[in-house]
Please model this.
Amino acid sequence: MKSVNPDDFKVVGKIELSKIPTNLFNNSNNEDKVDKLEKLRSKLSELQDVMYAHNKYGVLICLQGMDTSGKDSLIREVFKEFNARGVDVHSFKTPNSAELEHDYLWRHYLALPEKGKFAVFNRTHYENVLITRVHPEYILSENLPGIDKVSDIKPEFWKNRMKQINNFESHISQNGTIVMKFFFHLGKEEQRKRLLRRLENVEQHWKFSPGDLKEREHWDEYMKYYEEAINNTSTSNAPWYIIPADDKEMARYIVAKIIWEEMQKHTDIKKPELDEKIEANFEMYRKELEG
Model:
């Protein structure tokens, strides 16, 4: 299998999604991918233990993608060896009545990782510039000043909202949250096959929703707005990575590799040294316990 270089997937300039392949490793061996992922997730679990002791950074992993792009299974496979207390997963659905009484970022602030922990946003604050672009009527439920009807939502509104998201991510990164954002770049044909499998496989029936087909009708709009959001919000402190998602096993490995490589840049993350006075008295403590 070809080596994976995280920089190959990082967005550092303007991108066009239509020119980016959704599968780069057609002939790669599945066993090889699974084996490499197994080794990486073990290392990531050990890293999180060190982070917990170090207690200065949290890590925010943001996952975005169309329905069936593999976000849920990636969370299961990449983070399965983590201490259960070391990772929190949040899936942001339609805002409830309490959440709508606050600004759109409020519920995301509440879910940010504690120091020493990972948080995974399965669908993220970017829903507020994606699904609301395709369905702008959803904005009306936020009860915003000056916006009483869809025609009140001007292009400047979306530009300001993306600036607000950049400011949000800049603020949390400056205060110890390491941010990595992943877009699962799934092909439309591959999505069709996966939706069909949900209909044909009894064990996957529960995953199917007619709403998936309705959203699929807006595929081109979603690609347009994903592209716009990524181009306007991939920054040095909160970069986007575009992950070819037609091959689930490969996508999981690429994401795990990127997380691992990015975390290696934070060379200050180490277990704290034990106080010399405490270490000097180990023998005394041992005898006390044995007695």
Q: What stands out?
A: The first helix runs from residue 30 to 54. The CA atoms of residues 100 and 142 lie 6 Å apart. DSSP finds eleven helices and five strands in the chain. The longest strand covers residues 177-185.
